[in-house]
Amino acid sequence: MDDERMPVDWFVPEEELSRFEDYVEAEFGAYEGELGRRVEEAMREYAELDTDDAASEALLDECLAHSADEEEKQKTTTGLDTLANKDTRRAQSCVNPYVRMRFKQWAGENSDDCYGVELARALRQYRTNSRSSRIRSKLERFVDSEMDESPMPVGGGSDDHGNESATDDEEGTRESGTVVDRRVQTLVDQIHGKSDKKQLHVDKDIRPLLAACDGITDDPAPQTVDKYADLIAEELDLKRHPRCSELYIPSEEFPRKPDHIPTECWVPVSELDRNPVGRARRVCIETGYRAISNNGKASIDTDEILDEVLEGEISKRTARETMKKAAEFGGNGFNYTTSHGAKKRVLKVNLNVLQEHNPELYNEIVRYYNGETGSEDESDQR
Predict the structure, then answer these.
(1) Residues 211 and 278 in one domain
(2) What's residue 210's pLDDT?
(3) Are 193 and 124 contained in the same domain?
(4) 134 lies in a domain?
(5) Which of 128, 178, 190, 333 is buried most, with the most CB atoms less than 10 Å from its CB?
(6) Are 241 and 291 in the same domain?
(7) Is residue 165 part of a domain?
(8) How far is residue 203's CA from residue 209's CA, in Å, rounded to a whole number?
(9) CB 151, CB 119: distance < 8 Å
(10) Is residue 103 domain-shared with residue 198, that is, in the same domain?
């Protein structure tokens, strides 16, 4: 019975379904059956069909009763979205028939929306905040809360968890703060003592130090890493780099976007995750940029778009969809087609045609090229 599979066969909001497919391909690979297994897990988690796992998380929630209001707020805002108004496509991933039936029953009893919309919410929760990630985060919060409530000896020393206690400063006033505050200060001191570099990378610098802290798991949840990264950056007067979300730099070195660079070509591709039109504009402009030095014509395939323009941040399937949207956005002058012989999807641009039919986009591409190369004579660029 467990080996039986059947298609979901519901119409699911296309945008969320595409994001989930990208997530599965990036996290688990594209081998056969993986998408269906992850869809099934999302259904189980969202409708709490695995009672043991749900009970374990519920026990943690009870231990974190002091934050119940925050948890409830997160739960009650889940349905306040616009998924029911989005374009849909049929989901054909295969799942266990019993899980599909139970999820359908749960959705019918708990939602006024169709099954596909509720499935989209399940996929989004699994992608952004899965149960394993939530449990890790809650365990870390629980340890933090227990350490905050434990008495700290006056005059220094350390508690049973190995954390430094509050001490009297030179003026005799007692330092205070939660365990998070103390942990942040410890991490800041470690960063100062370990290196004098002015930049910090989340995965290379912050995550290893955080994983070594008492009360933090060896593999901290992404939410925990982001929380501490922001707190540490605030203490060190650092800001996230606009073109690399994993990098923090000094405020005084924060770069200003040059006027000639379009915003979509300046920010990291990850910043365009929720902006498919912006991603399509980036592809249009970057493809046109390449055409300027090639007699006004260029042809770029999916792999080049993915690696060189979209920085490997999305799947190949989404890259192809973006190329198609780019051709639609650019209009006359752009063409999304299949190359002869290689049978690759390619995006072609002819700047002479584009100049006639979309002069605004054409001028933006030329201005970008001139600013990057130091060229001034527009007539020489094609």
Answers:
(1) no
(2) 84
(3) no
(4) no
(5) 333
(6) no
(7) no
(8) 10
(9) no
(10) no
Task: Verify that 267 and 346 share a domain, yes or no.
Answer: yes
Please check whether residues 193 and 248 belong to one and the same domain.
Answer: yes
Backbone angles phi, psi at 334, to 5 degrees: -115, 145
pLDDT at 363 (0 to 100): 95
Q: Are 236 and 285 members of one domain?
A: no
Asked if 161 and 147 touch (Cβ cutoff 8 Å), the reply is yes
**Confidence class of residue 214 from pLDDT cuts 50, 70 and 90?**
confident
DSSP state of 204: I
CA distance 96 to 269: 36
State how far the Cα of 199 lies from the Cα of 354, in Å rounded to an integer. Answer: 42
Query: Which domain covers residue 100, as residue numbers?
Result: 6-129
> Are 249 and 296 contained in the same domain?
no
Binned at pLDDT 50, 70 and 90, residue 319 comes out as confident
Question: How many Cα atoms within 13 Å fall on the side-chain side of residue 2?
Answer: 1
- Cβ contacts of 377 within 8 Å, gap of 6 or more: none
Domain contains 136 = no
User: Residue 196 belongs to what H/E stretch?
Assistant: none
| C-alpha triplet 185, 128, 123: angle, nearest 5° | 165
pLDDT digits over 156-196, tens only?
Answer: 444 443 333 443 333 333 244 577 888 888 888 888 776 55
Q: Going along the chain, which residue ranges are E strands?
A: 6-7, 10-13, 88-91, 94-95, 200-201, 238-241, 244-250, 297-301, 334-338, 345-350
Beta-carbon contacts of residue 361 (< 8 Å; ≥ 6 apart)? 284, 285, 288, 330, 354
